[in-house]
Amino acid sequence: MKEDKAYRIRKTFVIITLILLFATAGLFVISTQVKTVTLDYYGQITSVKTLSGTIDSFLLQNKIYINKDSEIEPSRDNKIEDGTEIKIYSNKELAKFDEKMVRQDYSPMVAKLESVEETIPFAEQKNNNSNIDVGTENVIQEGQDGKKVTQYLVRYDNNNSEVYRATLSSDVITEAKNKVVEVGTRENLASRSSSVNIPRSIITDEGFKQYNIALPVEQQKYAYNLCMQYGIQYELFLAVMYKESGFNPNAVGGGNSYGLCQIHVSNHASLRSKLGVSNFLDPYDNMTAGAYLLAHYMNAARSKVSGDAVEVYGLNAYNMGESIYYNSCYSQGILNRAYSNSVIAIKNSLISNGGL
What we know:
Elements: H1 2-33, E1 35-41, E2 44-50, H2 55-61, E3 70-73, E4 85-90, H3 99-105, E5 110-120, E6 124-133, E7 137-141, E8 146-156, E9 162-174, E10 179-186, H4 193-197, H5 217-230, H6 234-245, E11 257-258, E12 263-264, H7 268-275, H8 283-302, H9 309-320, H10 322-328, H11 338-353
Parallel strand pairs: 1-4, 6-10
Antiparallel strand pairs: 1-2, 3-4, 5-8, 7-10, 8-9, 11-12
């Protein structure tokens, strides 16, 4: 019994010894097959131990992906030996990251909250007054600027120069007070009665300029005095007459419009009543009516627009009638028309060349 037990122990010992010998031999064989490879991966060099037999199996074993823009040396099918150098690089020039340069160019920013007191400019409000004469303006209320405080988020660079500003809030401290002006719209018929009742009399020649146009000098002077009385530009009135009739006092338009200023028949009765004119083919009566209408539409324009737009609006209203022009053009965002553009061009040419 004791002999059997010793036998089993010896047998087990022998088996373990054989296993250890085979394992040691296997490890020895494997160690002889391990190769050290130098990998240059886009300029990053490392040393890698591998059992791979070829470059391709090495890439697969180490999960290295090679895209279409990359090159590998040696080629994938080359065998790997101890000391093999594998270089992977791009066949295209890549952007280089220069950390030192980036740090040198880096400019830290500072953000600040700033409160700024600002002025709110006052506006001018004009109100028509039919109780005072055309050309008269009275200041009813002086304008006064308001004040507000605006909060800004402002960013500055390291040179303390502003690079960004955003408005966060704006609080009104004092409301602006509009300047209020009353504008006279009443036609002063008494002051021009002499020119209406005796149209060929000349009131004054002061400031008058004779132009080389197909309008007799006496009629030019009369037109000039009408413009002085109604507060309209003399050259603009001449341009209107040229556009309407070419300075032909006998012109009759197809729409029942007559004379130098092409006064439409629908206005004849009211103009006779207001101005005392009687013959719309008479150059003096016609100019009296035309200047009156042009002044009327210019005054209407001032209640709607300002600046250069007054002239444009007034001319188009003269041509179409104010309500038609307002509803079909101005209210639709259309200010300029071919008519106003043409008259203004004629006026500028008259002034520049001294005639038409």
